[in-house]
Amino acid sequence: MAASDVRKAAVLLMSLPAAQAVQVIGNLPSCDRDAIVTAIARVNQVAVDEQQSVCNEFAAAGRFDFLVGADRRSLAALLSDERPQTIAVVAAQLPAAQAAEMLAELPPELQNDVVGRIASREPISRILLCDLEQGVRDKWDARQAG
Hints:
single chain; 2 domains
């Protein structure tokens, strides 16, 4: 585990209630556990913005995994009637190559708007991201069933 990842894990665990953190630490492989516990012991203070950034990154991990590997045309058709900011959030959750392929299928004017929003996007709250993911999942499931 890279040093930056160890710090992120330490910050994330320090953000949890103590009982939950202990439970999570107990389930880690010993090599990771030792590194993370050492990092926690060394961290004196965590800035609020760092804590928020780490928590947002963790919350976003694994989001929209049901779309990973989906055909670019299917993704473009799924998202083409969404607002550019919605498409940008979804695209940012996908592997870069898949997002680029999907964006290439959108109309040029929509591509430009979405790319601009990806470049300037700000963190999205975990609640909004979960709601968005559920909405896209429902839409995806309906398309797959029909």
